[in-house]
Design a protein that fits this description.
The protein is α/β, with parallel strands linked by helices. The protein is built from 11 helices and 12 strands. The protein is 31% helix and 16% strand. Helix 9 runs parallel beside helix 10.
């Protein structure tokens, strides 16, 4: 697979993972807070910040009952209509330019998730460097074609999608002009539980679709995200807030600044640890070889004395014969006087 480059940031197994902070509705309807989220995310070390481009009217219908009303007792947003939820969570379109400008000033990638064709046209007018497709839209093939036709890199969350659906989505995206595709393993529950995250899917997805694969993670904490790096994830997306105590539609499963900083640090450490298949001492381990166990004389001995369990032991350091020769040496005679603390060698034997 060829490497993907977004605003000079290289994405692939040969590079540290791209960390994306998702603002979503955590701006709490304040442009000042939105810009503070950008600044705080940049200080935490993220490489990109993502917002969402929609209005309540482009997402659903203004109906307050039936299937348009959230009554699931386990849902974070129980008691709201879909329309009211999106009214509360959406990022005003006039905020997009200042948010993206602040991202550029701080050296991070600013981009968005469009939810309809008008949103794509609007984002193209702002010259975004890439696009994200949300899990709930990954079967919206007209939208996939519209975004792919821009020729810009696409990140597609895979939540709920079957293999057949993903195959169709990937094929349509590539046929429509997408050359740089990243699939994001995702579990579309909020928050998601670790046991339902199934990150073993990541290497399978990479092999199946021959593209970069990352994780859009809705679990609490950073453990799942860091673990995904070991399975080949090259992109990590996590929701981000200034403080969960401030509330907000996605705050319950969003990282706070210090947690995001930890994710940036630990995900890079996990990537560094992957290395390659390796046996034997590394260059850095060579000096430690001397502290292996080896066979030593542990009592003063005279020429002609016999080696026994009382005068021969395996101890550190490792300057004598390896312990595997212990039984072979028992009963052998030494040919010279030897002081306690002498490493045993073949030339000391009769």
């Amino acid at each position: 697979m060829k490497e993907i480059i977004i605003n000079r940031k290289k994405i692939g197994t040969g590079y540290p993972p791209l960390i994306i902070a998702e603002m979503s509705g955590n701006h709490n309807r304040s442009i000042e807070r939105a810009l503070e989220i950008v600044e705080t995310a940049a200080r935490a070390g993220v490489h990109a910040l993502k917002i969402q481009t929609y209005t309540a009217d482009t997402m659903t219908l203004d109906i307050n009952d039936g299937e348009f009303y959230i009554d699931d007792p386990n849902c974070l947003w129980k008691g709201k209509s879909l329309y009211k939820l999106y009214q509360e969570a959406y990022t005003p379109w006039e905020w997009h330019q200042p948010i993206f400008d602040r991202c550029k000033e701080l050296g991070i990638i600013g981009f968005s998730t469009p939810f309809d064709h008008k949103a794509v046209d609007f984002l193209e007018s702002l010259d975004v460097p890439c696009y994200k497709i949300a899990s709930f839209e990954n079967t919206d093939l007209p939208l996939i074609r519209k975004v792919a036709a821009t020729g810009k890199p696409m990140l597609i969350s895979t939540g709920m999608a079957t293999v057949a659906e993903l195959d169709e989505t990937v094929r349509v995206a590539r046929e429509a002009g997408c050359q740089d595709l990243i699939l994001l393993k995702c579990t579309s529950t909020y928050p998601a539980s670790p046991e339902n995250t199934n990150i073993f899917t990541i290497p399978h997805m990479r092999e199946l679709f021959r593209c970069e694969v990352g994780l859009s993670d809705h679990t609490v904490g950073i453990g799942v995200a860091v673990a995904s790096i070991a399975l080949g994830a090259t992109v990590i997306e996590k929701h981000f807030t200034l403080s969960r105590a401030d509330g907000g539609v996605d705050s319950a499963f969003s990282l706070e600044p210090e947690e995001m900083r930890s994710l940036v640090i630990e995900s890079e450490r996990a990537w560094q640890a992957l290395g390659q298949i390796s046996y034997g001492p590394t260059e850095k381990e060579t000096a430690s070889m001397r502290y292996r166990r080896s066979l030593y004389i542990v009592q003063d001995m005279k020429a002609g004395d016999v080696l026994t369990k009382e005068n021969l032991r395996a101890v550190r350091p490792g300057l004598g014969l390896p312990p595997k020769y212990y039984e072979v040496l028992l009963g052998k005679r030494i040919k010279q006087d030897i002081r306690k603390g002498t490493p045993i060698r073949w030339e000391l034997l009769e």
